[in-house]
């Protein structure tokens, strides 16, 4: 059964809007991830390394090639501490 030609315009608009929404979502995800694709199926080790990389570089997806950590990394700990009075 053929599709009436009146439906072609509406279906075209639906397809275009799904394409615009998908492209916008992909662009937003890549912007948050510093232009890299999103990560999937992360385990505890990968989350820990991502936290370490964020503390080293200041970026969520950044990685440092420098073998020595900056001086701030010695006091920039993931552990929350409380002040001793």
TrEMBL record:
<keyword id="KW-0812">Transmembrane</keyword>
<protein>
    <recommendedName>
        <fullName>NADH dehydrogenase [ubiquinone] 1 alpha subcomplex subunit 1</fullName>
    </recommendedName>
</protein>
<comment type="function">
    <text>Accessory subunit of the mitochondrial membrane respiratory chain NADH dehydrogenase (Complex I), that is believed not to be involved in catalysis. Complex I functions in the transfer of electrons from NADH to the respiratory chain. The immediate electron acceptor for the enzyme is believed to be ubiquinone.</text>
</comment>
<keyword id="KW-0999">Mitochondrion inner membrane</keyword>
<dbReference type="GO" id="GO:0005743">
    <property type="term" value="C:mitochondrial inner membrane"/>
</dbReference>
<keyword id="KW-0496">Mitochondrion</keyword>
<feature type="transmembrane region" description="Helical">
    <location>
        <begin position="7"/>
        <end position="28"/>
    </location>
</feature>
<feature type="compositionally biased region" description="Polar residues">
    <location>
        <begin position="74"/>
        <end position="85"/>
    </location>
</feature>
<keyword id="KW-0679">Respiratory chain</keyword>
<comment type="similarity">
    <text>Belongs to the complex I NDUFA1 subunit family.</text>
</comment>
<keyword id="KW-0472">Membrane</keyword>
<keyword id="KW-0249">Electron transport</keyword>
<keyword id="KW-1133">Transmembrane helix</keyword>
<feature type="region of interest" description="Disordered">
    <location>
        <begin position="60"/>
        <end position="85"/>
    </location>
</feature>
<dbReference type="InterPro" id="IPR017384">
    <property type="entry name" value="NADH_Ub_cplx-1_asu_su-1"/>
</dbReference>
<dbReference type="Pfam" id="PF15879">
    <property type="entry name" value="MWFE"/>
</dbReference>
<keyword id="KW-0813">Transport</keyword>
